[in-house]
Amino acid sequence: MCRFMVYKGKDEILLSELILNPTHSILTQSFDSRLRLDTRRPHNGDGFGIGYYTCPSLGPEPCVFTSTIPAWNCINLTRIASKTTSPLIFAHVRATTEGNLSDSNCHPFTYKSLMFMHNGGIGCFKQIKRRLALSLNEQWFTLVQGSTDSEWAFALFLDCLDKAGNCPSADPGAGGFGHTVLRKAVLKTIQRINGFIKEVVGEAGAGSEDSRSLLNFAVTDGESVVCTRYVSSRTDEAASLFFSSGTSWKESSSEGGKKAANRNAEPGQKDYVMERRDKGSDIVLVASEPLTFERDNWVTVPTNSTLTIYKQTVMIHPVIDEFYSANPAHARSAGFAQAKGQTITGPDKRVLSQTEDGANGDSAGLQSNVEAVSGAIGLLSVS
């Protein structure tokens, strides 16, 4: 599975302050992801991408740089990030699930002012790909250049936006499409993906293919940002997603942070902290995995929820569909996310083992899962 990061701030920030310099930056996560449990393919080294918005006089479209070179080995990323500032940044490091290694498969994907990235995978994608493609208007069908399920999800999002009366090709104006419009289009995208899977293969999947999808999306129009943490299951946890907000993002001045940085960091890397001087949020970060070792800096986004950033305000809404539970004590298993190389987010989450029919497993299986997840999460703490 991939890792992604979103920054939205009142002021511009140097890209290197997010992508390169923090001890657990998105670049570090490309080779040292602490919340990935996939020991067979532990690296996010199948390409990377950064997207950011520049001066409005240059147009509303974001600037995007992608490469199939592993992020840790790309000198051009260092050169660009250390000399570029932006108030809205997307960054993504890729571990392939669908599609080969090519620039056209690297996130983020863009169209006009819109930018999109994905962590996860569409269930039974090969089986539903034709149905999904045929459902698109010609303009969005021909837009797809690569072979990854994520780009097809972006095309589907554009189709949903268009069919809701908000043409992606039109200039949305100074305020963008609006966070409500973006959120509704993302929810419709998820709904249509679930519908294709039910129509083509049913809930049980096709043979060895699993029909469950992990759909952690991030989309922006340059003004608002909408992210999802979603799994098409009532019994499973989604892939990890966190957010952090505050008034400044800066190098940690604590003695403990300095010691940790000296012990764990690559040359030039430092520990950072999100500071909060008042109740306002000048900065909002969203990430598959925390960029800092300050546990109280980060809040877990609930499974099957959307996170919306509008004028630095963070809003979280549940995704209410057939996989929704209104019970706040509803327990979910980490087994599916773990099988995909992910883990649940936060030590407060209970982990359930499951038998094949979805029933709770025995206590030994439960303890095994708890230990695996606790160990991975424990790596995020600085002792």
Structural description of this entry:
- Keywords: Glutamine amidotransferase, Hydrolase.
- GO terms for molecular function: omega peptidase activity.
- InterPro entries: EgtC-like, Gamma-glu_amide_hydrolase, GATase_2_dom, Ntn_hydrolases_N.
- The structure is a single chain.
- The protein is built from ten helices and 15 strands.
- With 383 residues, it is α+β, with helices and mostly antiparallel strands.
- The protein has a seven-stranded antiparallel beta sheet. A six-stranded antiparallel beta sheet has the order 5-6-7-8-14-15, with helices on one face.
Any chance you could write out the topology, listing elements then pairs?
Elements lengths: L2 E12 L1 H4 L6 H4 L18 E5 L10 E5 L7 H7 L3 E9 L15 E3 L2 E8 L3 H10 L3 H4 L7 H15 L15 H22 L13 E7 L4 E5 L12 E5 L1 E4 L3 H10 L7 E4 L7 E5 L11 E2 L4 E6 L2 E6 L16 H5 L23 H16 L5
Antiparallel strand pairs: 1-4, 1-12, 2-3, 2-4, 5-6, 6-7, 7-8, 8-14, 9-12, 9-13, 10-11, 14-15
Pfam families: GATase_4 (PF13230)
InterPro entries: EgtC-like, Gamma-glu_amide_hydrolase, GATase_2_dom, Ntn_hydrolases_N
Keywords: Glutamine amidotransferase, Hydrolase
Q: What's the alpha carbon Rg, rounded to whole Å?
A: 20 Å
Derived from helix and strand composition plus strand pairing, the structural class reads alpha+beta
Strand order of the largest sheet: 3-2-4-1-12-9-13
Helices and strands, in order, run as EHHEEHEEEHHHHEEEEHEEEEEHH
CATH architecture type? 4-Layer Sandwich
Secondary structure: number of strands: 15
The biggest sheet, with number of strands, parallel, antiparallel or mixed sense and barrel status, is: 7 strands, antiparallel
- CATH topology group: Glutamine Phosphoribosylpyrophosphate, subunit 1, domain 1
CATH class: Alpha Beta
Bin the strand percentage.
15-25%
Percent of residues in helices comes to 25-40%
Straight-line distance between termini: 27 Å
| CATH homologous superfamily annotation | Aminohydrolase, N-terminal nucleophile (Ntn) domain
Shape: globular
